[in-house]
Amino acid sequence: MCDAKANKVYKTVEYWDERFKTEEAYEWLTSFKDVELLIRKHTCNLLREKQPCSSNTKEALDTLPSVLVVGCGNSSFSSDLCSSGAENLISIDYSETVIERMRQKHPEMEWKKMDMTKMDGFEDDRFDYIIDKAAMDALVTDEGDPWNPSESALNSTGNMIKEVYRTLKPGGKFLQISFQQPHFRKLYLNHSGFTNQDVVVEHIDVGMGYFMYTLTKKT
Fold it and tell me: How far is Cα 68 from Cα 207, in angstroms, rounded to an integer?
């Protein structure tokens, strides 16, 4: 994703709405299985043995750690996460098309149309964990020179991190899976209450080689 002119289409909801009309599923970067151990490492009592994702009552779900997946698309990542125990889970995407299709595919789960850069539908300190798999990657497709990113890329990623930080509970964690090298990605993550010193970087040895970035909101 280095050609800004060719790839900036990935930042438009029109592109995704049109694509999701016919595309059944697409897995960006990694599968849930590829990163399950890393997720278990950075979460507490979130995942259990695999089981069907149940339709628990709200009262029952409220006793479980709360999770938000941003930019969910039509990936199976959210459903795999849910069936592994993360049942107090909300998945969002700004494409109405994909959210409606995912509601039909997994009616037992909660799906919301929402822009991850403007999550007005969620109160402050809402989630224990927020997970991004390749969502911010779409926001940097128009960055141009990664050493001197475009104002558009800085603004959109900044708005996303601001909202992630706002909606995380104190002590909550943001887990991000990305293709981007740490020395470039840290520029975008160093925002709001997060600093580069807060970023834990781990390599994901699948495909072309990816990275997991883990940040914890200060208590």
Answer: 25
Task: Supply 55's token pair.
Answer: 């339709």
CA-CA distance, 197 to 187, in Å (whole number)?
12
Widest pairwise Cα distance in the chain: 49
Between the two ends of the chain, the Cα-to-Cα distance in Å is 36
Q: How far apart are CA 217 and CA 182, in angstroms?
A: 19
171, with CB counted inside 10 A (0-12, 13-18, 19+), is exposed
User: Quick one: which H or E segment has residue 188?
Assistant: helix 182-189
| Beta-bridge mates of residue 165 | none
Percent of the chain with pLDDT over 70: 92
Q: Nearest-CA neighbor of 11 among 114, 157, 119?
A: 157
The pLDDT tens digits for 58-108 are 666 778 899 999 999 999 999 999 999 999 999 999 999 999 999 999 999
Q: Is residue 180 helix, strand or coil?
A: coil
Q: Global pTM? A: 0.92
Distance in angstroms (rounded) separating the CA atoms of residues 211 and 81: 19
For the stretch 139-154, pLDDT in tens is: 999 999 999 999 999 9
Give CA–CA dist 139/171, Å, rounded: 26
